[in-house]
Amino acid sequence: QVQLVESGGGLVQAGGSLRLSCVVSGRTFSNYAMAWFRQAPGKERGFVAAFRWSGEGTYYADSVKGRFTISRDNAKNTVYLQMNSLKPEDTAVYYCAANRWGRVTMATYGYDSWGQGTQVTVSS
Fold first, then answer.
1. What is the DSSP string of 38-93?
2. DSSP β-bridge partners for residue 48
3. Which residues contact 17 (CB under 8 A, 6 or more apart)?
4. Which of 38, 94, 96, 124 counts the most CB atoms within 10 A of its CB?
5. pLDDT (tens digit, 9 = 90+) per residue, 50-59?
6. Is the Cβ–Cβ distance between 96 and 108 less than 8 Å?
7. Cα–Cα nearest to 90, from 123, 51, 50
8. What's the rounded Cα separation, in Å, for the pair 97 and 107?
9. Beta-carbon neighbour count of residue 73 at 10 Å?
């Protein structure tokens, strides 16, 4: 497993932007799959975006396509989630996740490392 530490959450008005960061440390993770999930109050944790650290493709939930971008900085061992055109329904705790098998999945059980989460609140 690897250790994941998220940051960058906060309060923003609808239409605004935030960038979340997830610093990855621990084992060699060049073959890992990385993802962002979110959980709103009273709802299940849901998939937001993902990529394979060794691959080219990125994957997004339909609800965030065209507004959110997942990316990485290899030199900083950091995964980012750039969130633009934020909506009140994007309000949630956002979690960074990783799996050692390098398989991108939208299921929470497919990931074996999780960060502590960072709160994002979008006001209307």
1. EE-TTS--EEEEEEETTSS-EEE-TTTTTTEEEEEEGGGTEEEEEE-S--GGG-EE
2. none
3. 82, 83, 84, 85, 86
4. 96
5. 999 887 889 9
6. no
7. 123
8. 11
9. 11
